[in-house]
Amino acid sequence: MNKARIRWHILVFLAPAVLVYTAVMIFPLFNTLRLALYTRIEQERVFAGLDNFRTLFFDPIWAEQFWNALGNNFWFFLVHMLVQNPIGIALAALLSHPRLRFAALYRSAIFIPTILSFVIVGFAWKLILSPIWGIAPSMLDAVGLKSLFAPWLGKEEYALTTLALISVWQFVGIPMMLIYAALLTIPEEILEAGEVDGITGMPAFWKIKLPLILPSIGIISILTFVGNFNAFDLIYAAQGALAGPDFSTDILGTFMYRTFFGFQLQLGDPHMGSAIAGAMFAIILLGVCIYLFGIQTRMRRYQL
Amino acid sequence: MNKARSNPLNTVMMHGALILYTLIALFPVFVILINSFKTRKAIFREPLALPDADSFSTIGYETVMKQGDFFLYFQNSMVVTVASLFFVLLFGAMAAYALSEYRFRGNMLMGLYLALGIMIPIRIGTVAILEMMVATGLVNTLWALILVYTAQGLPLAVFILSEFMRQVSDDLKNAGRIDGLSEYTIFFRLVLPLVRPAMATVAVFNMIPIWNDLWFPLILAPAEETKTLTLGSQVFIGQFVTDWNAVLSALSMAILPVLILYVIFSRQLIRGITSGAVK
């Protein structure tokens, strides 16, 4: 083949994807980071260097909101890691049990919340937890725990955790499916070898299966991290853009939306919005890098 | 199967745990659906009872039909989802083919470049995306959404599809070349049909996030005539928040299409996830 010839078909095959991806994803991403360095003075766009970030991190009014949103976001993530992923793993372990009947049925049913939109999930739980309707209090009453009921979504100290648990309820299907898939790839011989040595039941899970699915747990953790740090929809659907009560459920996504579009009396500010997007970008990038270089490369993988 | 791993008590406990969790997963959906068919009084008096002759009412659905343009919203969601999936699959498969089939300078680099987007959410670029859509006049059109979702879906699509395309036999493609087929014909007539299962997986993966997205419809296309079902129900519920019949009916109407899609595609979806396509 003549090497100097340009193989046009390669270009034709690559061009549409590369063009759309570059124009709508990569370029705006960098443009947003660039916009974060500007500010608006009397309708003019002026270069401001790192002023926006300085305002965001240190100006008393902004900093309080920013650190509040960031702290809430970490708590949101922590609840997912501590509740969603263990439940997902437990369900997957049960489902992958050989000869379990109706496994496909359970699997499909438990996955249903995951396919619903945040709007549905947010409102549905809002109604169920609402003291006006009274489903939650009367159900607690039935088991004698009525005194535990509180308007969870309306109380500052519970609202964020409640929302995080609603999100866990919705997304538990994803770790369940991924772990289930990983458990299915474990060869039967290994488990049988364990049995010969007398390792069955729970010890078999802890000593044989769990080490083998660690890489999948790593992937789930980073997916959870990225998903949580750009979450927005559930909080917006359930609590509105103000992330009430008193900003106690504000996370970076809602904070950015409010800043960008404005709310009530405050005007929208695309430049501060970009600065928050920049901070989100840095956090997500940091998380992904920690995972890729700190965790994934050190994880022991077993050849199956 | 030996005895060591199956004792009846364990089996009962396993089913117990799974049934309990299944109930937790389905209960809210069930409550919303049954109450949407009840009168206002019955909703509050006996929220957990099934609708009977006495409490049956479709007043909520009537309000929704009269006040909200749910058919238009549904149609918009359909158009956006189907068009985005079409472009993700077509462009994604073409790029995946170029990356997996040909050796050229920058192949690796291009693959990495396209894979960047798997981990970085496109939402970070929202401010500039909106600015660009305003500048090009695409704001408040369905095209804005289609473009964004196409860009968002491409990285994972290219990644998954190129894995699968590497497995298509070289002999087949070379046989085509000897018969004088052009590279395009080889791609469309020989390779695409062979990776159809992988395409279905990619489609199902992308379908749900696109259909359910609230962020981009809210920001790029909030006009009445371009509202998607997700945004439409969000706005509708916000306005009718005290009309419980209407809210419950609107929620049910938003749940049903997804549920139907899920019943049709669940096998494909679950096979896609469990076949390790996302590893």
Automatic annotation (TrEMBL), chain A:
It is a multi-pass membrane protein. InterPro entries: ABC_transporter_permease, MetI-like, MetI-like_sf. Keywords: Cell membrane, Membrane, Transmembrane, Transmembrane helix, Transport. Residues 70-293 form the ABC transmembrane type-1 domain. It is found in: Cell membrane. The chain crosses the membrane at residues 12-30, 74-96, 108-128, 158-183, 212-232, 275-294. SUPFAM superfamilies: MetI-like (SSF161098). Pfam families: BPD_transp_1 (PF00528). GO terms for cellular component: plasma membrane. One of its GO terms (biological process) is transmembrane transport. Gene3D superfamilies: MetI-like. PROSITE patterns: ABC_TM1 (PS50928). Belongs to the binding-protein-dependent transport system permease family. This is Sugar ABC transporter permease. It comes from Ruegeria sp. PrR005. The lineage of its organism: Bacteria, Pseudomonadati, Pseudomonadota, Alphaproteobacteria, Rhodobacterales.
Automatic annotation (TrEMBL), chain B:
SUPFAM superfamilies: MetI-like. It is found in: Cell membrane. CDD domains: TM_PBP2. The chain crosses the membrane at residues 12-34, 78-99, 111-130, 142-165, 186-208, 246-265. Residues 74-265 form the ABC transmembrane type-1 domain. It holds the Pfam family BPD_transp_1. Its main location: membrane. One of its GO terms (biological process) is transmembrane transport. This is Carbohydrate ABC transporter permease. It comes from Ruegeria sp. PrR005.
